[in-house]
Structures are given as structure tokens and as C-alpha cells.
Amino acid sequence: MLRMAKVEYIRDLYENEGKSLRAIARETKLDFRTVRKYAYQNDWRPPMKPMPEPDAFPVMGEYIPVVNEWLEQDEREPRKQRHTVKRIYERLQR
User: Considering the entire predicted model, what is its pTM?
Assistant: First the structure.
């Protein structure tokens, strides 16, 4: 994995200076595939696993929309302020 400064340098060469991926690979002494990966990557979050169908949770069935709403709101919050499993459990008990 590359440091963010190197990734930003690759993106700058590709987007602002208009260099080809091969030219960037030669200049940075990185593999072409690595340069391509970082030049095209926009979303740095890890891929999310698809949620199972709500039918698979008979006990949680009526609470799923509420919890999903909390988690959708959490996506807009800083990482440290998001709900943990323990916090969701505590809120559901109220």
C-alpha cells in the first residue's frame, strides 16, 4: 500500500498534468496496474457487504427500519461518533 502523498502525486500527474498511466508508472517506478488503481480510485472506503434480507431476522423485524435509519445517519457523522453495537442495543432497550 502506498502512502497518501504518493497516491496524491499519482492523481495529480494523471488529472492535472494529463500524463498517461504508463508515463506515470515509468516516472514513479511503480507497476502500471498500481498506477491505474490509484489514478482511477475515487472512493477510499472498504467495500460494504450486502445486507441480508430483513426476513432473516424474525425477532428484529419491527426494529430494522429504526436501526437502518440510525446507521444511515451515522454515515454522515465522523467515525468516532457512530453507533456501536452496544449503543444500538442500549437505545433499543429504552
Answer: 0.49
